[in-house]
């Protein structure tokens, strides 16, 4: 087996799945442009704002991608390439794609509110409160962890800091040009993308050298501003332009694969158990995450994406299509490290981490393209910068989503037009960022990262749970969403049970308690939903 075959098989299967299985979901959910979307009916110029499909796909894909579809498959490749490849193909088509597409449509049909609101509508108020609190807490953890990751990157690679700052300035100019000056989208995009790549060159000439703590303070100020600023000014254009960065990385990587024609040198199957990862089941399905399915996607889809959906039919390319593109990135990541000699791959993974392993593999593909003449060193820098840029994108998106969750948690039940001071977007963002900062500076954030992987996939299971209840209420066939839900519950409950036990035995009592609480939360909402759906 070689890399070309793996990529061609994935491309063909994803194309067929998009056309037929995506169309099947559209038919069941009766997706139609006759249904006016909240971006028009509730347009407020801040959060609810219609976006053209290419722009929204860029924002959505940049938000959900982050480092997940790269880091997850690289780590899980220790099991062997075959389990990872099969899970990405199966998961993206039948689980992740269903999860992402249905989440957007369900949200749009409910005023573009979160999955928590849908749980309230079909499962109950207590279920909503549990889900929103859990989602907010998970996102705060994302904020803390990604702040550490981005600040580490900026400190160790000062050129990436300069590039990222310039990215933000260009995004603001792009947003003002397209939405206020009415510059043609194609012209604006062409100029914006050219400036984007010039920022990479500028970063190498004018690196910004600051301490890690200084970057963390700057990042907290930035994500506060990003959360409260109208979406069309910064978040949407930044993610849209950044998506071209990742597209360039993917296209260059795919072209490079066809020139390099790499063989897959790591074993098809290596082991049933990995140190610090766990057993093949459930660890594989938790570790790969974003490349096949991720609960974070449902928060993005029902958080920022649904509020910007111009028409319902755009949800197919944005939601289902976006998940399949992310699946392709996961396959590319797998091929990048799979092309290494197994010993080299293991050494880099253990001693340097998954991002350097991915960057080296991609740089070799780029180097194989004769007409580009890209050195291994330049290719590595380009790939590493792409990963760090999307980690920053995930950071500011997570902050805005956490703000939505916080506001919705305190939403008035009697009069939805009444808002308390705690629902104010500045106050809600301030509290969210403040808690995230406290976690970051406590020095304890990374110690609970192993639980985060399971928490993220539990979010996916809970989102599928809510979607199952909604589809049952519509009196539609629920198997297409119920079967993925049951599978994800089996994965997350098994993982949480193992984490609770292993952390208890290791004396990590806080982690054990957190894992147990998540386990009980999942069971509680599962029972509630079963009672609802069984009556339908």
Question: Could you outline the blueprint of secondary structure elements for this entry?
Answer:
Blueprint: H1 3-28, H2 38-41, H3 53-65, H4 68-76, H5 81-108, H6 115-122, H7 125-156, H8 158-179, H9 185-205, H10 212-228, H11 235-260, E1 273-274, E2 278-279, H12 280-287, H13 295-305, H14 314-338, H15 342-351, H16 354-367, H17 376-409, H18 425-442, H19 449-473, H20 479-505, H21 509-534
Antiparallel strand pairs: 1-2
Helix pairs in contact: 1-5, 1-14, 3-11, 3-13, 3-14, 3-17, 4-14, 4-16, 5-13, 5-14, 5-19, 5-20, 6-7, 6-19, 7-8, 7-10, 7-17, 7-18, 7-19, 8-9, 8-11, 9-11, 10-17, 10-18, 11-16, 11-17, 12-20, 13-17, 13-19, 14-16, 15-16, 16-17, 17-18, 19-20, 19-21, 20-21
Please explain how this structure is put together:
The protein has one domain (3-18, 40-117, 125-270, 295-448). It has a two-stranded antiparallel ribbon with strand order 1-2. The chain has 21 helices and 2 strands. It is mainly α.
Question: What's the gist of this structure?
Answer:
The protein is mainly α. It has helices spanning 3-28, 38-41, 53-65, 68-76, 81-108, 115-122, 125-156, 158-179, 185-205, 212-228, 235-260, 280-287, 295-305, 314-338, 342-351, 354-367, 376-409, 425-442, 449-473, 479-505, 509-534, and strands at residues 273-274, 278-279. Strand 1 (273-274) and strand 2 form a beta hairpin.
